[in-house]
Specification:
Helix 6 (about 95-110) crosses helix 7 (about 115-140). The protein has a six-stranded mixed sheet with strand order 6-7-8-4-9-12, sandwiched between helices. It has a four-stranded mixed sheet with strand order 1-5-2-3. It has 17 helices and twelve strands. The two termini are about 55 Å apart. The longest helix has 27 residues, at about 195-220. It has two domains: about 10-40 and about 50-220, Orthogonal Bundle (MutS, DNA mismatch repair protein, Chain A, domain 3); about 220-435, Rossmann fold, CATH 3.40.50. The relative contact order is 0.12. Helices cover about 50% and strands about 15% of the residues. By secondary structure, it is of the alpha/beta class.
Length: about 450
């Protein structure tokens, strides 16, 4: 993780952010790259949230360009892999070492069926094919925005180098003399090593840009606009959880004058899913990746902190309630550090009795509301706390409704302004026949 952007393991796991092989992870939504180098670059980008609005907006501008152009990845992943292996084998060796190494490989290939000489030729052929495809691809590209235009210019200049042009002109279907093979081995792996590495990096960048922009287009995601942190704004319309089928969208506005959302609603009404949606969206926005929403503007944060699925810790002897208290203390310390954070707490103090949960939720929410540089979402089903908070001018109130279809509850998952008056808990207990089973 980017060390300047604060996010801890619990938040990462609650939001199910990274994980190539983790079921339903947010990362897996975007992992459609073709090359191993592309995947490594995707990993690095995904795990390194940005804090500078300019850097975020530059990255999203590049993704938007690729989304608009609908470009296909022009390279064969196998050939790129062969080129990668070829460039890495014997990199930066002297001409004499390259020469003797090539001679030995050729000699062994005839004597003992050693495959290294053959792989050397195949690697050079793959490099020539990839360099030519890269040159042709750049020739067809239209005007590119911002800093990416400089990147294109840099790679075009590199591919137009007389030595690279000579290399690209080789007929790979003709047998290459040993002297020429040694010359080009030394050229690629030594003299032009850094330049060839730059071309490979550009190919990996293309891989990521095309994969991420394809996800944005196919799923209807949008790119958020990053604002300076001083504005302290989170404005998002039709926000939804990217991993939930047929998810219901919600709109949310937090700013300097209303930096706390106090969210009420019954269990199962969708409070936790809404909070996870906000957390995932804010994280992706800081990476510069597309988000599951209709539109979004946000002030950059210095970190993200959630407490949605707090578990007890048997090994440390923590009860569920004590684990909650520890979590709130950690959040309070983070907020008091002066960092501009997004902090989210779902059902504060549900591990204790209702009276203590009421007092604790009220006191903690009042305390959090003093940190005007942070954004907070606090949820509870203890609706009386909301009434006690109404005098706070920077707290806004939202609730997830429960609609009764006869005696059965139905959830809209659509946040509304205000504090819920839903009290269907006992009705649900009766509907499930629990009292009858107990002979009551």
């Amino acid at each position: 993780m980017n060390m300047s952007f604060s996010i801890d393991r619990q938040t990462i796991e609650e939001l199910n952010l990274p994980g190539k092989f983790r079921s339903g992870s947010v990362y897996s939504l975007f992992n459609h790259v073709k090359t191993r180098g592309g995947e490594q670059l995707l990993d690095k980008m995904f795990l390194s949230p940005l804090e500078d609005p300019g850097s975020i907006n530059e990255r999203t501008a590049v993704f938007r360009f690729f989304q608009k152009e609908q470009l296909s990845f022009p390279f064969d992943a196998g050939q790129v892999g062969l080129m990668r292996e070829y460039v890495d084998t014997g990199a930066k060796e002297s001409f004499l070492k390259v020469f003797t190494g090539t001679i030995i490989k050729k000699w062994l290939s005839g004597l003992a069926r050693d495959e290294r000489y053959k792989k050397n030729i195949q690697g050079l052929q793959a490099a020539i094919i990839v360099l030519n495809k890269c040159y042709s691809f750049l020739e067809t590209m239209s005007a590119v925005p911002g800093t990416w235009a400089e990147r294109i210019k840099e790679v075009r200049t590199l591919l137009s180098d007389k030595r690279v042009e000579r290399l690209r002109s080789i007929d790979i279907y003709k047998s290459l003399p040993l002297k020429s093979l040694v010359f080009y081995n030394h050229l690629i792996k030594n003299k032009l090593h850094q330049e060839i590495e730059n071309v490979l990096l550009f190919i990996y960048e293309l891989d990521v840009n095309i994969a991420v922009s394809d996800v944005a287009r196919s799923k209807g995601f949008v790119f958020a606009k990053a604002l300076a942190f001083e504005k302290n704004v989170l404005s998002v319309t039709n926000l939804y959880h990217p991993g939930v089928e047929k998810a219901v969208g919600n709109s949310l506005l937090l700013d300097q004058n209303s930096n706390v959302l106090f969210l009420t609603g019954a269990n199962m009404a969708g409070k936790s899913t809404l909070m996870k949606s906000v957390g995932i969206t804010m994280y992706l926005a800081h990476v510069g990746f597309p988000v599951a929403a209709a539109s979004m503007e946000f002030s950059v944060r210095q970190g993200l902190y959630s407490s949605i699925n707090v578990a007890d810790n048997i090994n440390l002897g923590y009860s569920h309630f004590y684990a909650e208290v520890v979590r709130v203390k950690q959040a309070a310390e983070a907020a008091a550090s002066g960092k501009r954070l997004l902090l989210m707490f779902d059902e504060l103090f549900k591990g204790t009795n209702v009276k203590d949960a009421y007092d604790g939720t009220l006191a903690v929410t009042e305390g959090f509301s003093e940190y005007r540089n942070c954004l907070f979402i606090v949820s509870t089903h203890i609706i009386e706390v909301g009434e006690a908070l109404k005098e706070r001018d920077n707290i806004r109130f939202g609730y997830m409704p429960t609609v009764m279809d006869g005696a059965r509850p139905r959830y809209t998952y659509k946040m509304e302004e205000g504090i819920t008056e839903d009290r269907q808990g006992m009705m649900i207990i009766r509907n499930e026949g629990i009292l009858e089973l107990m002979g009551c």
